[in-house]
Amino acid sequence: METMAMARRLGCPLPSTLPWCTRRFCYGARALQTPELCQWIEKHGGYVSPGVELSQDGQSGLGLLASQWIPRGQTLIRLPSHLQLGMRSGDANCPASETLQAIANRVPEELWSLRLGLKLLNEKAKENSFWWPYIGLLPQRFQIPIFFSGEEIASLQYPPLIHQVKRRCQVLYEISSKDIPAVLETCPEEKHPFGGQQVDGGALGWAMSAVSSRAFRLQNNSGDSERVLLPLIDMCNHSFSPNVRLEQVPTPDNTDFIFQVVAESSLEKGMPLSLTYGALSNDCLLLDYGFVVAENPHDRVELKYDPSLLDVARMAGGLSSLGPPSFTSPAPWQQALLAQLRLQGAGASLMVRVTLGGPEIVDGRLLAALRILYAADASELRHQDLEQLQLWGSQPPLGFANERNVLRTLAALSALVLTRSFATTVEQDRALLETLEYSSNQQLTTGYRLAKKQMLLDAVEKVMDRLKSLKTDSKVGQGVKARKGKGFG
């Protein structure tokens, strides 16, 4: 397959000793010259606290740590707008800017990292680029799925992520082999955005990876959102319990923005500085950053909303005699409510997706759908709010019996997805992990799918805990008191 062949051409596994569940796999080519970067920042109006230094210890790759005790609230790094590398950085009147934008316009909007990656390559091609003290410290190689072999990609065992990887590989191939040559074919030398150098899939893959693993979102004065690279700040590693925070603050004249890193808590000497990259699933973390987090509270499994699968789950839960004869043919009043949830009917897409996992345990639309499907008739929902049906509450909105059936079906559905979606078991993955070298591609893919399976097991456990906690007194059995406000009839 052409895209997989390209992935192999781009492939360049990066040796390290990182555990699969922690941080980015990245090593800089000029790590010993990091003081240059700090001096460059301060020379151009930025600020770096003397309490911040770079660390490369072989366990967490490049990162920042506290070189002394730092009190809570202290500003550690400050970057003015001219030290934030974005698509608008540099001279807009430069002859090459128009050509660069013409290429960027051919990149799908969702691949913003490739668009900004083109700007990074543009600066990298300049002999005396203003950004060289930063660019020279970027990792030479990245360990993310677009660099995996076809076999390694398949071993992820999760179709939604595999599709995204193949999509990115395909776009890289098309941009490098078709779009860039088409734009540059008649481009005069002075308008060439890459200094006359050829940009192949390998260069694009490197640039996209550098950006996706390091960029931050900026809210500009016009209210629009854009991504920028923040030198030095982007060396902070990730944690869902960070000890520093990133702030975007307006300048005194309110014409621009400054990014600054502030200590969220007091930091002991030698403590790594960690930011949160956001409430990201392991799909996003692996695809963009090259790591996954075990027991990630924001991880989910995506699946098609399939009434036939719900029928199988109902049967597995011993509930085949309850509800409509088949979830594939609900009553007209149920169809109307499912259409309002955009799970079927004119408002639904061709491939409706719902999720299991995350803080909410189950997609609210799926929860509401099952409550509706197990309702005996429309009168049970007459005074219920559709939004409320999508939420967990202290009491079941449609009564104990309905909620019990819903929970048993959800538990069975999670178990079915676990057994049907993955070719290996949890036990097999755990045994395999013990034999693999840290940070190998196979270790990453195994750790990724193991985390997915563990998340599904946790979802089953949480659903069963809710089932056990249901109260069987008469108030719960009769359902909650009707809510005031909008209803269904």
What this model shows, in words?
The chain is α+β, with helices and mostly antiparallel strands and 489 residues long. Helix content is 39%, strand content 11%. It is built from 17 helices and twelve strands. It has helices at 2-10, 34-43, 95-104, 112-124, 132-135, 150-154, 159-184, 201-212, 282-289, 307-316, 332-340, 364-373, 386-389, 400-421, 426-433, 441-469, 474-477; strands spanning 47-48, 52-56, 62-66, 75-79, 216-219, 225-228, 237-238, 244-250, 257-263, 274-275, 300-304, 353-357. It has a four-stranded antiparallel sheet with strand order 1-4-9-8. The chain starts with a helix and ends in a 12-residue tail after the last helix. 42% of the residues are buried.
Characteristic key phrases:
4-stranded antiparallel β-sheet, two-stranded antiparallel ribbon, 12 strands, globular, disordered C terminus
Concise structural overview:
This protein is of the alpha+beta class and 489 residues long. Helix content is 39%, strand content 11%.
Topology:
Elements lengths: L1 H9 L23 H10 L3 E2 L3 E5 L5 E5 L8 E5 L15 H10 L7 H13 L7 H4 L14 H5 L4 H26 L16 H12 L3 E4 L5 E4 L8 E2 L5 E7 L6 E7 L10 E2 L6 H8 L10 E5 L2 H10 L15 H9 L12 E5 L6 H10 L12 H4 L10 H22 L4 H8 L7 H29 L4 H4 L12
Helix pairs in contact: 1-7, 4-8, 10-14, 14-16, 15-16
Within the largest sheet, what's the order of strands? Answer: 1-4-9-8
Report the β-strand fraction as a percent range: 5-15%
Characterize the largest beta sheet: strand count, sense, and whether it forms a barrel: 4 strands, antiparallel
Helix content: 25-40%
Mean pLDDT: 85
Say what oligomer this is. single chain
